[in-house]
Specification:
Distance between the termini: 25 Å
CATH architecture: Beta Barrel
Radius of gyration: 14 Å
CATH class: Mainly Beta
Number of domains: 1
Largest sheet: 5 strands, antiparallel
Strand content: 35-45%
Strand order of the largest sheet: 3-2-1-4-7
Length: about 110
């Protein structure tokens, strides 16, 4: 178990734009250093936002249509020539696989996390 990080304020948390998104497209990403997909997510913005995500333990067809939790305002990051615009949240299971976080029930696309 990793130690807790230093305490943050509520204002730190409130600055993050964390939303429910729906995966609409998954593409291979062979140029990534670590096995990854290019994942298009509808987060209720004016357009689909893209993420480089190390979630290749999932089949692309199983991801499309799924609801995920995303941080939308961390700023774009260039990963092997691809612009990753958001972070899909996940956790590592006991076998080292990344498990994507999502709501337990249907939630509207773009719904903010609080």
């Amino acid at each position: 178990m990793s130690p807790l990080k230093p305490q943050a304020t509520y204002d730190d948390f409130a600055r993050l734009d964390i939303r429910i998104g729906k995966v609409v497209e998954v593409q291979p990403f062979p140029r990534a250093r670590n096995p990854s997909y290019k994942v298009g997510v509808d987060v209720g913005a004016e357009r689909i936002m893209w993420s480089s995500a190390q979630i290749t333990n999932y089949e692309p067809a199983a991801l499309v249509g799924s609801l995920v939790v995303c941080v939308c305002n961390l700023g774009a990051k260039n990963i092997a020539g691809f612009t990753s615009e958001l972070l899909i949240l996940g956790a590592t299971d006991a076998c080292g696989r990344v498990i994507v976080l999502g709501p337990r029930s249907e939630v509207a696309i773009g719904e903010p996390i609080f």
